[in-house]
Amino acid sequence: MKALIVASALTLVGSCATLSHTEKLQKIKDNIVFTDANIINNYAQTITSAELNTHVYKFSSDEFQGRRAGEPGHHKAANYIKDYYVKEGITSPLGSNNYYQIVPESFFSDDIKSSPNVIAYIEGSVYPDEVLIISGHSDHEGFTENDIYNGADDNGSGTAAMLEMAQAFKKAENDGFPPKRSIVFLHFTGEEVDLTGSRYYTKYPIFPLHNTIANLNIDMIGRVDDTHEDNPNYIYLIGSERLSTELHYISESANKNFAKLELDYRLNSDSDPNQYYSRSDHYNFAQQGIPVIFYFSGTHDDYHEPTDTAEKINYPLLRKRTVLIFATAWYIANNEKRIEVDQDS
After folding, report:
1. Which end of the chain has fewer CB atoms surrounding its CB within 10 Å, N or C?
2. In 127-285, where do the E strands start and end?
């Protein structure tokens, strides 16, 4: 009889614990409200398929010679990014006209020469010391005697998305809607070489990591993989709930309100043989306990091939995916309190 009472008590405690967790999740969901949805929509409209197209075609052109880290083609690509920020009036935290964090040759392997991360930001109006980093890598595979690896999807698509979002946030600031927290646009070199640019940044951060509230990382979001041939209205999300339950539900709500994509989490599984969670620049932030989301549309036959070219990008779909990231970033940057880290991944 005594054993039965103890077992019953344990069952009751277990059910209460489950209920408490369920209630906690519901509270998190209920607290996520896009009160400024009309404003977000207004600036999301400035993100256009045509401008994304222009950026991808330019960034993946032969002029940049496949953008291999440390080589002249990548230096030209970095300069293209910098010149865009200067033209848009988006400043650098490093000072006047200095948009480069140089990753030295000694930090690379394989005799790769020094190469820049490119950084720009919009300073927060209320909590300027709290920083949201939107990132994507700018490098690719370079060229051979016969071929140029232009990398339109990898990662011209992510770079174009970042430039369009930066422009939208700047327009909002100019119209009297600055972000409450600082938003950093960080283009990494050396992702194709052991995530070197992001490893360098997280070792020598420009903004303190303890004040970096989240990283939204974009790498290949312009194509449709074989799994989704019959349903291209999707995006893979990786890592969204691993460190912050709240970040996961912010993303879900942003999608419901603004993008209406199928959010596919299958590549987020620990058992996924591809292990994408550790294969792009967000991972170096996650290792520091910073919540992340990795946005990805999957691989395809042109992955790391010379045939990854600009005419194969689905630009209307690239726009929808960019709007999802933009709305998620807007909420994180403007919420009254910073997102909570409640998981240990």
Report:
1. N
2. 127-137, 181-188, 212-218, 234-238, 262-264
